[in-house]
Amino acid sequence: MKKFFNLLVLTAICTIAATLVPVAAVYAQNAPYWRADWEEGPCTQASCYTDWSFVQAENSAEADPNLNAIVSGLVSTGAGNVSSHGGNSFGKFETTVAAINAGKPHSKVYKEWLFSGGLAKNDTFGRPLQAVSPSGIDGTYVAWFFIPSNYEYAGNGWTNIFQFKMTEQSPFRQDPTWWVNLTDNPTDEIVMLHVESAAAGVHNPANDVPAPKGRWFQLRADLYEGVGIDWYLDGVFWQSSSNAMWPVGRDSDGSGTPQSFVFGVGHYGGVGKLYTDDAYFVSK
């Protein structure tokens, strides 16, 4: 009887402890549903980005492929050196004034997941899109970035580095929903990180934070479809975004004809370059 009682107590303690683990921590304990480790390099061809679904960075109609690559080893940034955050290879994305003037600012890559009931679609490599996780799009999305220490913001008001998009199939359209941009600080030369959405007037400068330069840093988004997104910088809570401001994932009222959900990284819109590594999605 005593052993049985001790077993009951132990079970109760474990159950209580489990309930105290934050949701994000539970996500982090799961194996990634998808990962891009960038270990295909060094390489400058679209065929090297097989962890991703679409590679605008190597499409000469949308970007300058000469500016983007998977690089390996110790790489000069123009203000020191950088090596991979993990493994040996990592991604380099760059956009120049010439590329922007030529209508080729899309130095970025996407991972796309097909919703149940969505029209079948193949990716850049002729593969059917990976299905959305059995638990949906809820989970933790992560990517690591390195911004050179001499990076100065130059562009049209924003440079996108981390984004979510939704694809509607009837009629077809693919639009950004929530994203993280680089922008300038009006009072000095510090580059700022800020969260924005497709809703007008969402950006609140009070939530902007300086972008780390000269070192690797992690951006993380804990996404809850129909509820919101919790954003983290280097594992520290940064801010929250609400579905009430702009839909997180599919419209909560069931409207629309959703086909797929998209997660992307790169250096899109502004002038400059950065490096990225170790992107992954851990489903709920």
Describe it.
This protein has 284 residues and is mainly beta. The protein has a single domain, classed as Jelly Rolls (Sandwich). Helix content is 11%, strand content 41%. The chain is built from 3 helices and 18 strands. The strands form 3 sheets. Strands 1, 3, 6, 9, 14, 15, 16 and 18 form an 8-stranded antiparallel β-sheet that branches. A hairpin with a 2-residue loop joins strand 15 and strand 16. The chain is globular and about 50 Å long. The two termini are 39 Å apart. This is Polysaccharide lyase. It comes from Mesorhizobium robiniae. Residues 1-24 form the signal peptide. Keywords: Signal.
User: How much helix, percentage-wise, in residues?
Assistant: 10-25%
The succession of helices and strands, N to C, reads HHEEEEEEHEEEEEEEEEEEE
CATH class: Mainly Beta
Structural class designation? mainly beta
Which descriptor suits the 3D outline? Answer: globular
What share of the residues does DSSP label as strand, in percent? Answer: 35-45%
Model regions low in confidence, pLDDT < 50 over at least 5 residues: 1-26
Number of helices: 3
Q: How many separate structural domains?
A: 1
> Radius of gyration over alpha carbons?
20 Å
CATH architecture: Sandwich
**Main beta sheet strand tally, sense and closure:** 8 strands, antiparallel
Mean pLDDT across every amino acid position? 88
Q: Tell me the total number of β-strands.
A: 18
Q: Distance N terminus to C terminus? A: 39 Å
Do you know the CATH topology? Jelly Rolls
